[in-house]
Amino acid sequence: MKYDPNKHHRRSIRLKGYDYSQVGVYFITICTHQRQCLFGAIANSKMELNPYGQIAAECWDGIPQHFSRIQLDACVVMPNHLHGILVITDAGRDMALPCPYERQFGKPISGSLSTAIGSFKSVVTKRINLVRGAPGTPVWQPNFYEHIIRSEPSLQRIREYIHTNPQSWEVDQLHPNNPSKW
Questions:
Q1: What pLDDT digit, counting tens, does each position of 28-48 carry?
Q2: Superfamily of domain 24-92+103-171
Q3: Residues facing residue 86 across a β-bridge
Q4: What is the pLDDT of residues 115-148, one digit of tens each?
Q5: DSSP output for the chain
């Protein structure tokens, strides 16, 4: 199908004018395609990862090996989504570079949050599809949700939310049987 900007236009959900490669702490949520419970199940308030969930967790843990300015904080892989906190540091950044958010929409920006998440989603998709023998099958929804964490109390609340997420799975808005899902 040929690209038609009137039909295929995707509006960015990022904060307009914000530089997502700058130093900061970010809360990330990434959902599976059609919110399929692809990564395992919750049993006794604990997440039990299946092989696909293990791939997602291993790839998340590997992000700093590929993006030297990114450090990991709390993370949980849930049956149909992942919550994590990423910290972008100053380490190795050339401060003389122009502001990357001025570049064209949709192009990868070295060291940016979107580039790191896009790379993560790509490698997870390739590895899972190799295991299940289904090349080209989507694993993730397009895009991801982010929240810029601006204070220590907010960081602590979000860490607590991530750590307790498996215990509240039955009422989670991303639970497939939740009547209030959006």
A1: 999 999 999 999 999 999 999
A2: Transposase IS200-like (3.30.70.1290)
A3: 26, 72
A4: 999 999 999 999 999 999 999 999 999 999 999 9
A5: ----TTTS-----SPTT--TTSSEEEEEEEEBGGG---SEEEETTEEEE-HHHHHHHHHHHTHHHH-TTEEEEEEEE-SSEEEEEEEE--TT--TTSPPGGGSPTTS--TT-HHHHHHHHHHHHHHHHHHHHT-TT---B-SS-EEEEE-SHHHHHHHHHHHHHGGGGGGG-TTSTT-TT--
